[in-house]
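Journal club side-thread
Mid-discussion, someone asked how the predicted structure for our own chain would compare to the paper's figures. Pasting it here so we can look after the session.
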Amino acid sequence: MADKEIKSIDPATLEMIEKAAQDGARVVFERAETMRACPIGDAGNCCSLCAMGPCRVMAPRGKEETVEERRKRVGVCGATPETIAARMFVRKLAAGTASHGDHGRVMAKFFMAVAKGEAPGYRIKDEQKLLQLALDLGVNIGDRSNEAIAVDIGQLLLNEFGKQEGELLFLKRAPLKRQELWRKLGVAPRGIDIEVSEAMHRTHMGTDQEYQHLLNSGVKVALADGWGGSMIATEIQDVIFGTPAPVLSQINLGVLKEDEVNIIIHGHEPQLAEMMAVVSQDAEMIAYAKSKGANGINLAGMCCTANEMLMRHGVPIAGNFLQQELAIVTGAVEAMVVDVQCIMQGLVDTARCYHTKVITTDFRAKIQGATHIEFNEHNAVESAKTIIKTAVDNFVNRGKNVRIPVHKTDMIAGFSHETINYLMGGLFRASYRPLNDNIINGRIRGVAGVVGCNNPRTPHDQGNQLMVMELIKNDVLVLQTGCMAMASAKAGLMVPEAAQYAGEGLRSVCEAVGIPPVLHMGACIDNSRLLIAATAMVKDGGLGDDISDLPVAGAAPEWMSEKALAIGHYFVGSGVFTVFGTTWPTIGSQEVTDYLFKDFEGIYGGMWAFEPDPIKAAHLMIDHIDKKRKALGIDKARERVLYDMAMRRELDSV
C-alpha cells in the first residue's frame, strides 16, 4: 500500500537524505517539506497573465455554490474559472512542446552539421534507419552518399519547425483513420513553432475565452510535440548515435566508485554525453586521471541523458530526477555536467557542502554559482576533453566525507521499436504479429505506457512501483521511458527474471521471447517510440483500425513537468486513455475537468483521468483495456478446435 509518510522507497535515496541532513546540505526533499504547494495555483484557479491580477477564483472551501454565486466568481477582466483553468493548462502544454521542440531543432541543426562534415568526431551510425527515413520522407536515394541523403533529410526536418502551412510530415505515420479525424477536427499541426506561438497568443489576456475551444487548440500544440519535435529528435539521434538495442548495465548511486574520478552527465541532449562517453575511455584521459591519483574515470548518467548513454554505450545510471543532488551528497562526485531541462538550481547550493563542481555546458542554460564551459559540437573532442580534465583536476580536492551507497541493480535497456519488431518476428519476418496474436488470445491483456518524472509531493518511486507491479500482475505488458523507467529498473523489474512477478499469460510470453515484463524504451523525448509502436499494432491487424481501438493505456504516476503534460495530451489526442497521479492542474474547475475526463473520449477516442492512488490508477487502466478488448470481441477465451480434413476442405471452399 502507498505510504505517504515516507520520502522514498529507494534505500540509497533514504541513506543519502540522512547523510545530507548530517552534513547540513539542503536537498529537494527538505525544501518540499518547508515549501508547501499553493492550493490555488495547484487547482488551476490563479491567473497571473496580466497586471490587473493575479486573480484568485477558487470557490470557498466546504460551501455548496449556486449557479449565480459561481458566475460572480470571476477575475478582474471577467474571466471565469473555466477560462482561467483552460488558459493555464494550454500554456503548460505550449511550454512542454517548446522544450521538446527546441531539443528537436538543435538535433536537426546538429544532424545537418554531421552530414556536411562540420562536426568532426560524429558520423552516421545507422545507415538502415537513415534510408528508411529517406523513404518515409520521399527523399531520393539512388546511388547518392549517405551524407547527401542526410542533408536533404535534415533540411526537410528543419523546415518542420518554421513551416506555416500544410501538415507535419510525420503525421502520415499515424493510422489513416486518425489522420482523417485530426483533419476533420482542425487539430492537425501545420508546423511546430507556429502552434506554440499561436497557443501563447490564444491564452493572452482577452483572446480565446471559451474553454472548449482552448482545450481543443491544446491538442494541436501537443500533437506538434509527439508527432513533431519529439519524433524528429528521436529519429535523428538514432541515425547519428545508433538505434538502441538491448544492453545490460546497472543503476543507482552504488555505480559510483571510490577510487575513480566520478563524472555525472545530467540533462537531455546527447551530443555532449555521446562524446564524453568516448573521450572518457581515451588512453590519454585515463593516464591523466592516474597522474592525479585516481584509478580511472567513471562516467554515470542522471535523468534522460542517462537513458541516452545507457541505451547506446551501456553507461550506468546513477539515478533519476530526485536523486541528482543526492549524487553530490555522496562526496564522491568530482563534476556534475549539465545541459538543459530538469536540472535543479539547488545543485549549486548542495555542492557548496562538498568538493563537486557543477558545470553548465549549453548556451541557453546557465546557473548562478556554477562553472560554465560551453560545449562546441564543431570541436567536440576538445570540448569534451576540457570538461573531463576539469573534473579530473578536482579529484585531489575530494575530502574524507565520502559514503557511496552499496545499492545498485542490474537492468536491460534499449527496447526501441525496431528491437521489439525484431524480437517478435525475427530478422526477415520482423513484425508485431506475435504481440497482436498474444493480445488477441489473451495471454497479454493489453499494453501500458508508464512514463514521466518524479515529484517530491509523493514518495519517490513508490507510485511507479505499485502501479507497474499491479499492471504486470494482471498480464499488462509495460513500456517505459524517462525517470519512471529508472524507477522500475531500481526495483529489479527490467531483467527477464522479473517475469516471476507477472501474471501467468504475460509470464509465458516473456519467458518464450526472453524479455522483461517491463521494457525500457528510452528518454522522455522517446515517447514518440510508443506512438510508433501503437501504430505498428494497428497496421498489423486484428486490433481495430485506429490507436483508439487498441487495448492500451498510458500513465504518469509521479509527474511534475510541463513536458509530461504535453506528452500526456498528445497521447490523449492520439486516442489513448491516460491517467496522471500526484496532482492535476484543472481540478479547480469541474467543467474543464469533465471536458478533459469525459467529453474528450467522444471527440478523440482518448481521455484524461486523475487518480493519486497508484493501484486504483492501475485498475482504471485495466478497466479501460478490458473495455477495448470487449469492443474488439476478444474478451472471452475461445475454445481451441482441432480441424479434421473435412473441416479444412469446408474452409477452402469458402
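Post-session note: The chain has a mean pLDDT of 93.
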